[in-house]
Hints:
Layout: H1 4-16, E1 21-23, E2 30-34, H2 38-48, E3 57-59, H3 63-69, E4 70-71, H4 74-83, E5 88-94, E6 110-114, H5 119-126, E7 132-133, H6 148-155, E8 161-162, E9 175-178, E10 184-187, H7 193-200, H8 209-212, E11 229-230, E12 240-246, E13 255-259, H9 264-280, E14 285-288, H10 297-308
Parallel strand pairs: 1-8, 3-6, 5-9, 11-14, 12-13, 12-14
Antiparallel strand pairs: 1-2, 2-7, 3-7, 4-5, 5-6, 9-10
Helix pairs in contact: 1-5
The structure holds adenosine monophosphate and magnesium ion.
The site of adenosine monophosphate (AMP) has 15 residues, from strand 6 and strand 10.
Amino acid sequence: xxxxxxxxxxxxxxxxxxxxxxxxxxxxxxxxxxxxxxxxxxxxxxxxxxxxxxxxxxxxxxxxxxxxxxxxxxxxxxxxxxxxxxxxxxxxxxxxxxxxxxxxxxxxxxxxxxxxxxxxxxxxxxxxxxxxxxxxxxxxxxxxxxxxxxxxxxxxxxxxxxxxxxxxxxxxxxxxxxxxxxxxxxxxxxxxxxxxxxxxxxxxxxxxxxxxxxxxxxxxxxxxxxxxxxxxxxxxxxxxxxxxxxxxxxxxxxxxxxxxxxxxxxxxxxxxxxxxxxxxxxxxxxxxxxxxxxxxxxxxxxxxxxxxxx
Length: 310
Ligand code: AMP
Ligand code: MG
C-alpha cells in the first residue's frame, strides 16, 4: 500500500479526465468512473462487456451530494443512520435536474446509490466533485475481484490504475434495497435481511428475480468461476473440486472449506477467492455441498446459485 497518497492523486487526475480506475471497497473492488460523464460511464460498460440495460451503482461520500441526484425518504434516513457508510445500496427515485449520466441507470427513473466504507475510496471521493459509478471490477458474468491481483487478472493493462486496498473486508457485494415502491430486497449481500428487519421493525421480502427473467441464462448466469458449478452435492465426482461450508475431511487435495470454524463472515469473505483458486488449480468443475441459508449465507447461496446457472 506504498505511495497510496500519490496514487489517490493520480486516480483523481484520471477520473477527472473521464478515465477509469479500479477502487477497493469493503465489499469487492469496483471499476470506477465519473457518474456525471456519459463518456466515462460508457467506458465502464465496454470494459466490462456489460449490457447497457444493466444499471450501475453510484458511490457517494457525502449525503449532501447524494441529495442533489436523488429523492430520499424516511426509510432511507433510518437505514442510512444505522448502516452507512457500509455494504447497503438504496434504489431511490432520481431527481429530474440530476447531473447523472443517463447511461448510469440505463435511462430509468430510479438510481442505485451507496456510501462505501473503505478509507482509500472515501479519501478519493472526498477530493472529487462528482460521484463514482462503480460496478464490480470484473468482466460481466465472471467472479467479483476481492484483491488487487484479481482485478489485474480481469483487466490487465486495459485500465491505467488499480488502487490497492488489500483484501476486501466483506468479500461479497452490497445488499440492494428498493425504497421506491413497497420496500423490497433486490439482492442479498453484506447487510443481512435480519439486520434490516430489526431496524425497520417489519418483515422484508427477497425479490425472486429469476422468476421474472425473460431469457434464462442472460441475467441469471453471474459470478462464474469459468467452470461448471453443481449445488447440493454430497460427494465430488472424479476431477471435481469439493467446496464445503465447514470441512471435516483432512488431507484431501480437492476439498476446500469456506471457513475453519463455522464463522459465516469468514465464509463470505473467502467465497470468491476460493472459487478463483479452484479454477486456477485446473479442476474441471466444482461440487458444492449445502451451505446454511441464514444471515450472510443467503448472499453466499445467491452467488453460488447464479454461478451454477446453465
Ligand atoms: P454490480 O454490477 O455488482 O455493481 O451490481 C449492481 C446491481 O444493481 C445490478 O444487479 C443492477 O441490476 C442493480 N441496479 C442498479 N441500478 C438499479 C436500479 N435503478 N434499479 C434496480 N436495480 C438496479
Ligand atoms: Mg457485479
